[in-house]
Amino acid sequence: MAKISTSNRHVEIIVGLLCLSSVLLETNGQTISVSQPLYTLTAPNCNPGTVVGSISATDSSNHPVYYFIPSPNNNVAVNVRTGALILINYIRPNTPYSIQIKALSSSGTVTANVTYSCVGSGTGPAFPSSGFPSSFGSTSSSSVSFTETLYTFATSTCAPGEPLGRTSVQEVTGCSYSLISSGPFFVVPSTGVVMVSGQLSGTETYTGVATARCGAASATARVIISTHCRSSLTTTTTPSSALKFTQNVFNFSTSSCSPGITVGMAAATNAVAYVLSPTSADFAIQQTSGLITSTSTLTEKSYTLTAQAYGASGNSTTATIVVSSPKCNTALEFTKPQYTFSPTNCNSDANVGQVALVGNPPGVTYSIDNPTGVYNVNGTTGTLTAVGVPVVGTLTIRASRGSRSATVPVTISTSSCPASSSSSETLSFNKTIYMFTPTSCAAGDILGTVTATSTSGSPIIYSISSGNQAVQVTSTTTGANLTPFVTIGEGNTSVIIMATDASGKTATSTAKISCPASNSR
């Protein structure tokens, strides 16, 4: 076995300490650590958007952990919350690349060294030695095309993390963007935002090609970036004070109340990661660009958020974001002060009409203030549907959204119903005359039961049309019971019962009652 000199041992000890410092960092008894000091990751292919692998860090106090690349590059990006490393450009197949990734929590920061590569046979774009295509231009396949054939961006700030502008394709979503450039720039894969990835200086012009891959289709566009940097800027480490939002307060206004709307960008110089602190149920921030988007249906209130940007050394700064939605602030208003529906389709369960609000705002729920069981309203669309055949009636429809609501009267007429739709419907009692001989006619006793039938199947209402006013009628599931509310004396009495169905049809029948001499219970 070869002997190790004292000086070599000394070097070995130093190296060991350096490795340990990248695995574990302790602050006030709290620690953050990565699972291993060196990761070797291999992507299954070399296409932009492919996940190469993941970095994992833990905080001893279970504080949230965020991941970022101290010096963003053209090849890979890291998911700030999950640690997933993603290709954002084509890289040379079977060629190892090295990068450092930092994990950040309130306990401190820790660094992991990563070597990554991809498996492939070079089927992607051919790269010259400069690292980008030897010819520039705009090409496309299938129906995908960029909104511009040439994008021109300029910067005088020249700081890493600065957004320069956005590339995008026409009328296609779900695309993955990449950028091959002659300078220190990269593009956010999910948004197409072009950003500075390294320190710039002087006045220069850089060229590049942006690529959008949308499923099997793809498109390319030329990119020219002009820099007009102050001569005092050098490639030395930027001081932490340079981490700064471009504004202390960002005021955004959105013209839509729907989720998924981009409301603005909160950009900071020298930022490598963005988060909302605390997180919001209504908005999200794009982790590498600072783009703010809505994640829920907005209401009439004004929203105040706090964006936090992190620098490469783990330092952070905050800015206030205020979002207003003017179109969501208006009171709910129906398109008409009242509605009158005269359906021509008068069959059972037919749609009779629809109510709607001005501007058709999202998140509205419709209901009936005075339900009769004859009509239903769709809570989402405001469409009225008959239960059985349509009948004459008046309803009050309410629209609710958040803390706001509005009502409107609705009148339904059957005057436009075809004669055939109602002439075939009948209502009749099962007897023309009922003969009842109860054992007692004391108050509350059941004297007898009558039954009417409607071929429409609609509900039937019973009432006493004429006769002995001491007799009352009570509806049951199968008909109606006749009961006196005071004791009826010995002898014969009679009443005429009327049945009315939901369409307004009526039928009558006579009930003759013979009460006994003794009406005691």
From TrEMBL:
Keywords: Signal
GO molecular function list: calcium ion binding
InterPro entries, alphabetized: Cadherin-like_sf
Annotated signal peptide: 1-29
A Gene Ontology term for the protein's cellular component: membrane
Protein name as it appears in the record: Fibronectin type-III domain-containing protein
Lineage, opening ranks: Eukaryota, Metazoa, Ecdysozoa, Tardigrada, Eutardigrada
